[in-house]
Specification:
By secondary structure, the chain is of the alpha/beta class. The chain is built from eleven helices and 28 strands.
Length: about 450
């Protein structure tokens, strides 16, 4: 427990204060819902931007740029005079004294809303993190993009056919919405977008594998929807391996069930765990580390602390609500509403989720959706997916830019964000022997890594 007199700067408040931890969907909607309430609102986040996580895979596969799915918190909240943003990382929470400690200061609160979200979980295999990045942050997405694109470049200048196959094998672990969307996007960029851009390799020969220990893709969806998604993925040349657990990940490849698959790119979309902030609440947590909350979204025996979004274990009709954007948005607004009721002396009300359905895109003009008991697939579901995601994006500029990029990608079969940026060496590159690099004096036609091609002309490049 942090010491109250530890020398940290304390932010003074003039009236009742509401401290919100996390600027994701839940935290941001809570802050916006408190706009006209007579309180001081402090929104703490370790990033200075709100991130639209459902489209992270599009950044990872070069469909969108990082700035297209993120918006600075100060810009989003500039019209909310009672809201102040704080750039900092929460380190501890003292519920007895009602103080939040973060790396550069501390804040007293009258009401606390915790919406810190989830992190990638490797189920105890933390050494896999460097070999298989997750997809929860912008840094993750940019790292995935760098690895995917760089492996195509390394394969272009490799004269070892066996090594080339490993470089052009991409494994996505986890067949939930993120994994399904990621696998479909990698297949699309390899088999359709970049197919004519290399001279020594045939990008369409790239192998995309989606693996999961579950028996179905999109296991949280209806069985009929799951079967349609599997069919569409297979038609996109995604190799789906179900009911097979990943045993080991190394720089040379992945052990899936009884098979070892040489692969230099592995994307982890298989599990999440609660933010460490949940532990600082000193309350009962579920097996994923989420705080178990009351019907009003408060902690047991502490009605001044609300936990919302992915970090909340909230049961409705015997089921825990999933970590979806609509759940987070509604809980953020409801927590703010209950605080308003408390301030005027009224009793807070229990939360009731209005189910708006779920959807996932598989590729160009292909998606599945479940809305109000109806199931859709194909082109209609894809257009519906586009519309819903555009509406949830924060900021008019983001919506316009994303719409234009999607139109550009759909009509021209191109990806606008294919830049390899920064980062240290990829661990898997250590497994690439120097002897595999093509001698610059070797005639390209002698490499023999493509089955059919036109005579090479120049170095490629635009």
């Amino acid at each position: 427990m942090a010491d109250e007199d530890d020398g940290r700067h304390e932010i003074a408040t003039r009236r009742d204060s509401v401290v919100i931890i996390g600027g994701g969907f839940a935290g941001l909607h809570a802050a916006k819902a408190l706009k006209r309430v007579d309180v001081d609102v402090y929104l703490i986040d370790r990033r200075n931007f709100h991130l639209f996580q459902p489209l992270l895979y599009q950044v990872a596969t070069a469909g969108l740029g990082a700035e297209d799915i993120a918006a600075p918190l100060r810009m989003v909240l500039r019209g909310h005079d009672n809201v102040k943003t704080v750039l900092g990382e929460v380190e501890d929470i003292d519920r007895d004294r009602r103080i939040v400690f973060f790396d550069t200061g501390k804040l007293r609160y009258d009401y606390l809303i915790v919406a810190a979200g989830m992190e990638t979980s490797y189920y105890g295999n933390d050494d896999w993190e460097k070999l298989a990045p997750g997809l929860k942050t912008l840094d993750d997405a940019l790292e995935c993009r760098r690895r995917i694109l760089k492996m195509f470049e390394r394969a272009e200048w490799t004269d070892d056919p066996e090594l080339t196959r490993g470089l052009l094998t991409f494994v996505v672990v986890g067949a939930g919405p993120t994994g399904v969307e990621m696998a479909g996007a990698i297949s699309e960029i390899a088999h359709r977008v970049m197919v004519r851009e290399f001279r020594n390799i045939d990008a369409s020969k790239a192998r995309v594998i989606l693996a999961d220990a579950e028996q179905r893709v999109l296991s949280a969806y209806h069985e009929e929807t799951s079967e349609r998604a599997l069919k569409d993925l297979e038609e996109m040349d995604v190799e789906v391996r179900l009911d097979q657990m990943v045993q080991k990940i190394t720089a040379e490849g992945v052990q899936i069930g009884d098979d070892f698959i040489p692969a230099h790119t592995v994307i982890w979309a298989a599990g999440v765990k609660a933010s460490p902030v949940a532990e600082a609440l000193d309350t009962k947590l579920d097996r994923m580390g989420r705080a178990i909350v009351e019907p009003e979204l408060t902690l047991p025996q502490d009605d001044r602390v609300y936990v919302i979004g992915d970090l909340a274990h909230f049961e409705e009709d015997g089921q825990v609500l999933p970590g979806l954007a609509p759940v987070a948005n509604q809980q953020g607004k409801h927590a703010a509403r209950n605080i308003r009721l408390r301030l005027i002396g009224e009793k807070p009300r229990p939360f009731k989720y209005k189910d708006k359905g779920q959807m996932a895109t598989l590729g160009r003009a292909s998606a599945v959706a479940e809305i109000w008991g109806y199931r859709f697939a194909g082109m209609f579901a894809w257009v519906l997916w586009l519309f819903v995601h555009l509406m949830y994006l924060v900021g008019f500029r983001n919506r316009v830019v994303v719409l234009l990029n999607w139109a550009y990608a759909y009509i021209g079969m191109r990806r606008s964000g294919r830049l390899i940026l920064g980062g240290p060496e990829i661990p898997q590159e250590e497994a690439i022997p120097d002897r595999a690099l093509i001698d610059v004096e070797t005639p390209i036609e002698k490499v023999g890594l493509i089955e059919e091609s036109e005579p090479a002309s120049g170095t490629g490049g635009e």
